[in-house]
Give the backbone structure.
Amino acid sequence: MKQQSYLWTVSLPRGPRGWLSTGAIVLAVILTLHWSATGAQLSVAELAAGLPQIGDFLARTVPPDLSIVPRLLAPAVETLQIAIWGTLLGVLMAIPLSFLAARNLNKNRLVFHATRQFLNFTRSINELILALIFVSAVGLGPFPGVLALALHGLGMLGKFFAESIEEIDQGPIEALQATGARPLQVIVFGVLPQVITAWIAVVLYRFEVNLRSATVLGMVGAGGLGFELVSSLKLFKYQETATCIIVITLMVIVADAVSGRLRNAIQRGAHN
């Protein structure tokens, strides 16, 4: 049996200057990692010392209190509803802004940069902070969670949508413009057919992210399973905490499996 040989395909530095530049980059990376590790106070010794406390906490959660499962059904459904509407509102707001944030469609530089910076701003604020703001504005309950997920998702989805528009083939767009098509017709017949598959895939992924985030938003009073989770922790009912974690994990696993199958089906349909 002939032994396979493998080739190193990465080009090596050439000459003394190339090696010096590579060495300087490697040294800079090492120094940056050391600096960040010092600032983050990474300590294997502290982690090892805390392992008994982690073990003690896990021991208190066994066995999970499954008797509260019926009580968790309503918060679980509420978490799902928060994720659905947070995703939907984020998509509806992101679509029009993505056309303004696409360099190849929007020739107005001022509008383009203003839209991009707005998307960056909404994306930079964590969902928990947004949830706290909306809780103070509209009160406790699932609605602040929906608004927080929608606003944060607007920034993430808008950026992705805009970048996918910038990568499309300009041929169909130029052909439509040459026939006198209006901007809306160019978008419907020239842009959307090229990006819709990628958009659906990323929307499904965003829904998975929102489902995970919705379970956490309840910690600040935004409804869902997070509220039950925090309540059990505050009351030191760790067996109930374990049950909440199990329910959350099962929800995420099911959502991941369903969205994964949908993404695969969409991608297979796009290639056929």
Observations:
- The two ends are 39 Å apart (CA to CA).
- The mean pLDDT is 83.
- The CA atoms of residues 60 and 176 lie 66 Å apart.
- The longest helix spans residues 183-217.
